[in-house]
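hey all, quick one before standup. I had two proteins in the batch that finished overnight and I want to keep them in one place so we stop losing track of which output belongs to which input. First protein below, input sequence then structure tokens straight from the run.
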Amino acid sequence: GDTNSKVFINEVLWRTLPTYGGENFKGWFQYNSNSNSNDLTTFVSNKQIFVQQFSNSWTYDSVLNSDPFMLNLIPTEQFIKKGKVLFSLDDTSFSQNYLNVVIDSSEFDKLEIGKINSPLVKVIADTNNGFKPFPVKYNGKTYLGGTINLSNGSYQLVSTCPFAAYLYGFQAYDGFGYALSSETEYQRGGDTLFVD
């Protein structure tokens, strides 16, 4: 982040980082959530910050179908504004594949998913598919987060409102994870310079 970034986790001031980069707790810090919990966590700062989620190795928590990877989290300002995201899970070696989605609760009914060349279906918010509200509102909005289990195949995720999506998977001693897409406009003042 920037110098003197105040980082709040679920509305509680967690750290003020006096600089960026460098030593732990000066320019960055590590936060471990309760490992026995699937609770959603909100990170907010008074300045721009970069947040990564780390998946531990099997030696850390004895989960055999896993391996380390880092997943960059997308700030709400860079959520996909609307549209379609195409992705493929055609590597049959990964037996466990997941899609995490974050979306404004008032717009959740506009989120649809389906395999390519198959009808789209609405992703329904209920406790059966694990979607639940984040513990705090952000900019007056209640966001939902949840996980969708996926089989191998090619998919499309469609919405007419902003959302973020993360794809990840595991197999014995292996794992992968990444953000599916994000808006990349210049966040401090709008795009004015373009590459010819």
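OK second protein, same deal, sequence then tokens:
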Amino acid sequence: FRDGWVDDPLYRAGFGLRRALDRSLEQRVLEKADMVISATETIDRWFVDRYRHLISDKHTVIINGFDPADFEQGFAADHKHGEAMRVVYTGALSGSRSGIPFLQALRAALSSGDVPVGGIEVELCGYIGADAQALARRIPGVSVHGMLPHREAVARMRSANVLLLVGSQKSPDALTGKLYEYIAARRPILALTPDG
């Protein structure tokens, strides 16, 4: 599991019949599994706390990572004075990981002149929620690219001046797999995360 299931704070099915069905499916999957592998200790703990009787001897954690072959090409040159700073985000921006605070701060910095129009380009690549898309389209220099093939997303990471990482307010101890690819891209990371 790269993400939790019903206990995951980002789970969106709500309550009632859908949640009961998902809980039943979750139990069946864990019951039938030869091994339950989670990407973080937190996710592993969610399953062990709820299903210790089913998985006590068949669970482990294998931490996320990256494929070094994806990052063998050269890297972007450092930002030069007078060029627009390129900020790239890859992944999902929605719910408690919306990116709205970043976009609001950028809009304010552009409006006040603290950041000159044309001085920054922001590329949002991946699933971008409707609220973030609507705001992004009203900010000069911000573009929304939607889902991209992995190779193209990696190329954008490697060519960025800064990579944007947005943490979840509902799951502050979640460790996104994106972080590992960002580290492999060897670009500075601007991380917007909850306290702690």
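Flagging for whoever picks this up: The first strand starts at residue 36 and ends at 38. The two ends are 24 Å apart (CA to CA).
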